[in-house]
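Customer escalation, tier 2.

The customer says the design service returned an amino acid string that "doesn't look like it belongs to this structure." They asked us to rerun it and document both sides in this ticket. The original structure tokens are below, unchanged.
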């Protein structure tokens, strides 16, 4: 056997979302972030479109990201729906992370759009698992300005592309245990006929 399957099973089953308020404030090393991105690049994708696109924010750029997304929220939200608490949260949340990576999908019409989104989600799972293997906290957030049309160009995406969220990275203060899932047997129908 080429791999330690027991370790791989454990890695997959221990992966958790670890949120920015659970990070210590220490930096994740540049080499680990590069490895996380490198492994994203090995996700399955139909017709080899490799649709994942990322923008990496760290250091002072995290403050800039916070300001830019809070301002976009302010300008693009009708006054009656605007919430000051959300504005503040958007401004400060990125600064709790070591790195924030925007999760983008670059559209290629040779395959249906849903397959491009699926391929990006596979890339994000590679990132989650790599982070877990290195003991790094990671979390895919799709709140805030994720689905605002105006957000795309801020992160180098075109009109037909999609912003699918933000991938937060940090050194975890504690690592949450796996949570109990509904059994897989509830979700599978076997159709093996002898
Ligand atoms: C596409 C996607 C979007 C998500 N967006 C959010 C989000 O906006 N806010 C949030 O708290 N969690 C978000 N999550 C993380 C989920 O809350 C988390 O994966 C779920 O609670 C299961 O926990 P686990 O990742 O630790 O297994 C998102 C997860 C996915 C896959």
């Amino acid at each position: 056997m080429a791999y330690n399957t027991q370790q791989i099973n454990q890695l997959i089953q221990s992966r958790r979302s670890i949120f920015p308020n659970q990070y210590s404030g220490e930096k994740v090393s540049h080499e680990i972030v590069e490895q996380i991105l490198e492994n994203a690049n090995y996700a399955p994708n139909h017709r080899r479109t490799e649709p994942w696109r990322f923008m990496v924010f760290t250091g002072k750029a995290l403050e800039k990201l916070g300001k830019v997304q809070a301002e976009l929220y302010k300008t693009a939200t009708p006054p009656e729906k605007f919430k000051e608490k959300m504005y503040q949260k958007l401004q400060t949340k990125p600064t709790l992370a070591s790195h924030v990576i925007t999760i983008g999908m670059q559209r290629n019409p040779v395959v249906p759009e849903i397959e491009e989104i699926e391929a990006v989600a596979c890339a994000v799972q590679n990132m989650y698992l790599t982070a877990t293997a290195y003991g790094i906290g990671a979390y895919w957030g799709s709140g805030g300005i994720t689905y605002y049309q105006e957000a795309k160009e801020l992160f180098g995406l075109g009109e037909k592309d999609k912003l699918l969220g933000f991938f937060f990275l940090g050194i975890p203060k504690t690592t949450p245990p796996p949570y109990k899932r509904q059994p897989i047997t509830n979700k599978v129908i076997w159709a093996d006929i002898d």
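Tier 2 assessment: The sequence is consistent with the input. Residues 16-17, 140-143, 165 surround flavin mononucleotide (CB under 6 Å). The domain at 18-172 is CATH 3.40.109.10 (NADH Oxidase). Sent an explanation to the customer and offered a walkthrough call.
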